[in-house]
Amino acid sequence: MNIIDISSEKTMNSLEVQEIERITNEIVDILINNPGTPKHWENLYDFSIVNPGLSIENSSEVNDEEFYLNTVSFKKLQILKNGEYENLITKKLFKNKIKSSISIYPINSSIDPITISDDFNNHETSSSNIIAVNRTVRCNFYSDLSIISVSNIDKINNKSYNNLNLCNHRNIEKNEHFDDEKYEWICKGFKLNKNDFEEKNYYVVFNENSVNKENYWVLDTIKNHSNDEKIINSNKINLNDQLNQFFENENSMIFYLHSKINKNNIDKYEYVLIEVPKDLDISSFNIDYFKDQDCYFIMKSYYDEN
After folding, report:
1. Burial 50-74 (b: 16+ CB within 10 A, else e)
2. Which of 16, 253, 291, 302 is surrounded by the fewest CB atoms within 10 Å?
3. Residue 210 to residue 233: CA distance in whole angstroms
4. How far does CA 285 lie from the centroid of its chain?
């Protein structure tokens, strides 16, 4: 009888594990291949009406795709991390039958991993039937805070971001940004509204290979041209004070960020210009946090026996 009881228990456990694995795989596919409803639910204040999905919704007018497969919205992850995991994942998807956790491990090791769970760690060591499902996804992290950027890939492909890229120095006699034997210029235009400026902080974030390499930057406007070249000696530069000097009585302005780059370092030069909420501390963030990143999306799960 003991042998029969043990055999039945093993069979039951095996079927249980298979069922958890099936359900977890289905939930993972729902989360990374579905943006959820309502559209852009991450911008709501009340999440009780949300059917969860984590994929990134398309905001581009050029591309007609509604959302992107195998992607994860960092903003939606933050909502789960800030207290909605139990409501949206445990209750709505797992029907309170299964405990779970989500971990995001960026392939880029310069970005910290993220783990979100519904009290999972308190049970993990005592459970022998933990299922782990792993997918490779694209996560946007803080890339939506980027206004303009320059990277080596962009330079090779001559990527155009908007119709403001024509350098405002081009038509000024004896003041053009000409490349020479040592330096190359890359100039980008962007438009800011004064209301946005009053609510946000603006930074230029450089990669480590751009700092202290005889590279320079200039910020000016379509009306006020400048040749004040500042050497890049820090990976973050706060632009608020300088932008404030330009705004004066204007409600909106077109600015230009000019990069004078040492040609010996041109293939490693990168930056992003970002606008961030004033309450967001980016002191520990490097430039990679403001780019889309390939990550491992891992969901662990097990039956809640309580």
Report:
1. bebbbbbbeeeeeeeeebbeebbbb
2. 16
3. 9
4. 11
Residue 188 phi/psi, 5° resolution? -130, 140
Provide the 3-class DSSP secondary structure of residue 5: helix
* HSE of 177, CA atoms in CB hemisphere, 13 A: 25
Tell me the pLDDT tens digit for each residue of 25-54.
Answer: 999 999 999 999 999 999 999 999 999 999
Residue 6, burial from CB neighbour count under 10 angstroms (0-12, 13-18, 19+): exposed
Tell how strand 131-139 and strand 71-72 pair up.
parallel
Please tell me whether the peptide bond between 113 and the residue prior to it is cis, using omega within 30 degrees of 0. Answer: no
Per-residue exposure over 160-188, b if at least 16 CB sit within 10 Å of its own CB, e if not: eeeebeebbbeeeeeeebeeeeebbbbbb
Query: What is the SS3 string spanning 112-123?
Result: CCEEEECCCHHH
Amino acid at 151: S
Q: Are 114 and 81 in contact (CB under 8 A)?
A: yes
Nearest Cα neighbor of 104 from 140, 52, 131 is 140
Residues in Cβ contact with 41 at an 8 Å cutoff, skipping those fewer than 6 apart? 47, 50, 52, 76
Rounded Cα–Cα distance for residues 243 and 147 (Å)? 15
Greatest CA span in the chain, whole angstroms?
99
Residue 177 is encoded by which pair of tokens?
Answer: 């940004």
Binned at pLDDT 50, 70 and 90, residue 159 comes out as very low
| Residue 265 C-alpha from the chain's centroid | 26
List pLDDT tens digits, range 213-253: 999 999 998 888 888 999 999 999 999 999 988 887 788 88
